Amino acid sequence: MSFRKRNIGLSTGGDRAAPVSAAAQPQQLASAASAPESTPGVRPSPDDGRPTTSTGTPSLDNILAGHGGLPIGKTLLVEENGTTDFAGALLRYYAAEGVVQDHRVHVVGMPEQWGRSLPGLIGPADAVDDKQDKRKGERMKIAWRYERLGEFGAGIAGSRVPTATPGEQAQPTAEGSPDKRPAFCHAFDLTKRLTHPSIANLNYIPLAPSNEPLLTTVHKKLDAAITSSPSSTVHRIVIPSLLNPTIYPPESCQPDSVLPFLHSLRALLNRPGVRATAMITIPLSLFPRASGLVRWMELISDGVIELCPFPHSADALATSGAATSHEEPPQGMLKTHRLPVLHERGGGSDQKVGQDWAFTLSRRRFEIKPFSLPPAEGDKEGQDGAASGAMPKKADLEF
Amino acid sequence: MAPTNTSHRQTHNLLLISKLLSLRDTASPLALVLDSLEQPATPLIKEYIRRAKLSKVHITFVAFETLQPLEGVDAFVAARKKSPLEIVRAVNAAHTNVSTSGPVRRRLILIDAINPLLHARRTDAHFNISSFLSSFLMPQSPTASKVEASLVVTFHQDVPSPPPPSPYTPSPLSMLTYLATTIVRLHSFSHILAQKAARDRSLVPPVFGLEEEQDGVLLGRLDKPVGNDSAQGVVLELEHRRKSGRGVLEWYILPPASHYPRQYAKEIVTLLDDHPLYRPPQEPSFGAGEEEPESTFELRLTDRQRRDREGVVLPYFDAQQGDGPGEGGRILYDMGEEDDFDEEEDEI
Amino acid sequence: MPTQPPLPPLLAPYVTALPTSSLTVLSTVLGAQGNWLTLRYLYAALNASTASDATFSLSGDNNNNDGKKQKVVLVSFLRGWEFWRSEAKRLGLDLARLTDKRQFAFIDGLSELFSSPRTTPTTETAHPPLPSQPALRGGPIPQRTVLPTRSAPGPIPARGPQPTTPRPVAAVPPPSAPPAPREVGGPVTRLHWSSKGAAALDSLEKDIAAVVAQLKAAATAEDASEVLLLLDQPDLLLAATGPSKDVGATEMSEWVMGLQQYVDATVMTLAADLPLIHNASAAGHQMATPLETEHAAFAIGSAHRAHMVMQLRDLDTGAARDVSGVLRVSKGGAWGQSDNVDTNGGREEREVLYFVQRDGGVSVFGRGE
Q1: Where is the stretch described as Disordered (chain B) (predicted)?
Q2: Which residues of chain A fall below pLDDT 70?
Q3: Min Cα separation C311/chain B (Å)
């Protein structure tokens, strides 16, 4: 029952955005209509109309407190336990999305090889979704009311970009043919390499020693790069593995070095006229969440999510963890400690707060979905029941 | 405990606290008040001021964290941004113009919190808490008349101390407790009651506030339910070192200030053990302890019956006579006529 | 429009009529931020008409500021003008207009605290807009047209240095105010961390004191000159500078005390997350970092100095859909220091739940209600 409620919230959130922006923000709609190509990859939030941009991961966009993306001017801190690099995959999607959308992407502390390893573009996130085709072919199996809920992975992101799905085509779109609308989020293939004309525009900010504190230099370079570019540019700041001692010198993990840097970064993103977002990852194995320093980094960030990968030995759990044979086993848990805008305002009203999330990284996507322990092995009846009744979402996804 | 013993302890210890709080005979030159967020020292400090006013003692208040002078204070020294030496000078100056004009009065110096000074960066490595405190008690110049001064220092126990400059130096708290002649630990009465109630049921005593170690909780104190205001008050755990070296440890309770008039001269502090809520008077006394519940049955034994009962030799006594190993556990039973012995079933 | 009253009745006694020279500590955690409560203090002070018709009656003899409007100075170290402006708008407060009317002043501790402005390095004259910017930005591009601005036009980016467009504030100076040079760059004062330790703190104090003095000077006869100071997360200063820059808990406390002397009441937001408070406690199993020790000393020490401590935290049982968090109101260490205990009626300790709605309205209710 709870699942259904949430799903309705999701899809109506997407539908509602158009009338809201039309009624309450005429100037914004006008500007969006007049120059839609000037802001590719930016769209108003269905929640309150603030501009958001995609993280490159549709299911991550969908858990960001109903905004369907990362609001402009916000930072997202991605923490990861253990030695895996799922957070790095999220960063690559984020950077690749920026490249594809012609955003200016600033990469801190990484060599140019990092940019060459960005995942290859498949297409707009929904159009190339292989499940989309499957769904079209086997539509008869799905109860009508479930189909309206939309696919979970698409959620708001999907409903905003018109696709060939009949339920959404029925909804009249304001501007022209759906194909002319730029996609908000794209799908990427981790095994391929991104080739895009604007990939050369990646701005690498090296961690070169100078007579200044290192992070001060980084901030100055970021500041200069952002202020010197036209104000219509949308920026993405990518900071992989902040404070990792193999990249950063040991003195940068002093609070009086890293916290002013994050504070200045926050100030930069909040500056009027600057349109930028930032995604930062940090290894929790080296800097545990229980330490005061990390807590302050979280307090300065707008959004905090934590990745807890399952140990490899959990394969047994994982194989049985898939509710159906089609579903890939989850590779870890994802916790949202703080969501942009929502918690700043007091928190709580988001329908998905407190939900347990699991993530799965496959070749083509990083998928986040609600985590639930599966019915016991061999409990055929329970599995059937879960698939048909209690979990419309899974049914929606998998038939 | 014998009743005479209790009443002796009562009068003796009440005299002691009265002497200490009223600063009579300079019984304790340095009193250390250890408070916490759960029970701040404000009520006790106000009680000190009230009594000092009654006995016309000159009060100097050294404020490290207070902005507004408390009522009844004669001299208010703001210690903000001052070095220890400046503070000592200011405190002494506050008294000199008084002592030159009028008759020599005893003085009370209150320090509202010593923690900021211990934390401050401006206190260099040569800062010594003991010389700092004793400089208040010493006469500032040889010519000045000796003034009997008492020092009451508050220390917040729950404020973490910075790491000591050297790993071998004692912590400030142990230094202060070593120097102090009187140590008063403050507890909230309602917490003491709650912990006692739990202990009486052999439960783990509850903890409050910071000790809860809960995210976002600094204070745990909540007002008692309306109408139960008798649980207000401050519990003082007093540790006093006499000049003879003997130590006294006693628990007292200071009732809230609204319960007595300001000019009330009699002792208002009582022993915690005498408080009706802590030790309810209907608690069974020594003799009544063996009383059994009344019943329609006669459950008691007469003396003769009891003697008979004690005379009974129970079987296991016999067994313990011990005729060697293996003999002890036998069941001695003589088969009677009414016993229907079944060979197959009961193999004894 | 908020369906809830801007000031929930249960909350009203705590956010109005703060005692003179009192400190109120508002402790928050990562998942339960206190901005909504800060806004309630703001609202109660600036919009006193609603505060006075509340059901409780405070026989204030020395602090009869209920029913009288207060001026507010908001110093924010983690959030910018845009956030406070838009959130206050949901409560019906037009901060830009109130700034013009000299009832409110915003001091920006975010924008340039650690990143020194590129043109004017001194702290006092740092308020004119940055002249290098228009050239760098490439001329008068209509910068914000594509951003959705939810409010009516006005001084929208009131802290935005946009010298190409004439600022309404600068164009129409309020007649009552002396033409201070500070006003050239807009109504917002920005703080700068200059160099080290005590000197830097002193200069911050001077900047804030100047703003407070301006507000007080602008007071007219019918207008109260009482000023409420809202300090939003000054503990960031401590965390981001720390003992290596000669800033410790004592220095921070003294800094706050210094600010308290300029104003009538102070509300301060602090982080009270578990790692920041308890790692330094004696029960800690490991060596606490200086950051943790100093933060805990500052936060707990401030609670000792506080009149009331409003503690926000997450729900103990995990997140819920209709509850944002728990608010525990406790008497601080300085409770009862001044002798007007009677005027504190209505402010008893309690623990309530709160829920921040999507529209910004807040409902406050007891458990089980």
Answers
A1: 279-348
A2: 1-38, 126-181, 312-327, 348-354, 374-399
A3: 7
Report the gap between the CA of B133 and the closest CA in chain C (Å): 19
Quick one: pLDDT at residue C340? Answer: 55
What residues form DSSP beta bridges with B34? B155, B185
User: Could you tell me the CATH number of the domain that includes residue B104?
Assistant: 3.40.50.300
Give residue B186's pLDDT.
Answer: 94
Helix (H, G, I), strand (E, B) or coil at B45: helix
Q: How far is C340 from chain A (nearest CA, A)?
A: 33
Domains identified in chain B, total number: 1
pLDDT on residue A150: 45
Using an 8 Å CB-CB cutoff, list chain C residues near A220.
Answer: 115
B221 domain residue, yes or no: yes
Q: Does A342 touch chain C (CB under 8 A)?
A: no
In-domain check, residue B341:
no
pLDDT single digits (tens) B153-170? 999 999 988 877 778 888
Note the ipTM here: 0.78
**CATH number for the domain that contains residue A68:** 3.40.50.300
Q: What distance in Å separates the CA atoms of residue B112 and residue B115, rounded to the nearest whole number?
A: 9
Q: Please report residues of B whose CB lies closer than 8 A to that of C28.
A: 216
A299 touches chain C (CB under 8 A): yes
Q: What's the rounded mean pLDDT across residues C3-9?
A: 80
A232 touches chain C (CB under 8 A): yes
pLDDT confidence of residue A322: 46
Asked if chain C contacts chain B via 3 or more Cβ pairs within 8 Å, the reply is yes
- Mean pLDDT value of segment B85-98: 82
- C95 falls within a domain: yes
- C158 vs C14 pLDDT, higher one: C14
- The H-or-E segment that residue B90 falls in is helix B84-101
- Region C252-277: what's the mean pLDDT? 92
- Taking only the tens place, the pLDDT of each residue in C164-222 is 333 333 333 333 333 333 333 345 788 888 777 678 889 999 999 999 998 888 876 55
In a domain, C177, yes or no: no
Q: With contacts defined as CB-CB under 8 Å, which chain C residues touch B220?
A: 330
Are C319 and A351 spatial neighbours (Cβ–Cβ below 8 Å)? no
- Please indicate, yes or no, if residue B59 is contained in any of the structural domains: yes
CA-based nearest residue in chain C for residue B49: C337
- Give the phi and the psi of residue A154 in degrees, each rounded to 5: -80, -55
Question: What token pair was written down for B140?
Answer: 């500032």
The pLDDT score that the predictor gives to residue C17 is 77
CB C303 within 8 A of CB B219: yes
Give residue A118's domain range. Answer: 4-398
State the total domains in chain A: 1
Residues 101-160 of A with CB under 8 A from C: none
Could C348 and B219 be called an inter-chain contact, meaning their C-beta atoms sit closer than 8 Å?
A: no
Give me the residue from C141, C240, C354 closest to A230, CB to CB: C141
Residue B193 identity: L
- pTM of the predicted structure, to 2 decimals: 0.79
**Residue B111 belongs to some domain of the structure:** yes
Is C133 in the A-facing interface, judged by CB distances under 8 Å? yes
Amino acid found at C35: N
In Å, how far are A55, A96, A202, A361 from A189, measured between CA atoms? 15, 10, 19, 11
Closest C-alpha among A38, A64, A42, A63 to residue A51? A42
Distance, CA of A259 to CA of C242 (rounded, Å): 10
Structural domain for B71, as ranges:
3-274
* Residue in chain C lying closest to A338 (CA): C31
Mutation for testing the C interface, residue in A74, A216, A263 having most C CBs under 10 Å: A263
Q: C289 is in which domain, residue-wise?
A: 12-128+184-365
Domain of residue C19, CATH code: 3.40.50.300
| Inter-chain CB pairs, A–C, below 8 Å | 202
pLDDT tens per residue, range C125-155: 334 333 333 333 333 333 333 334 344 333 3
User: How many whole angstroms separate alpha carbon B61 and alpha carbon B46?
Assistant: 11
Q: Do B121 and C27 touch (CB under 8 A)?
A: no
The sign of the torsion formed by the CA atoms of B11, B16, B22, B26 equals: positive
A159/chain C closest Cα distance in angstroms:
21
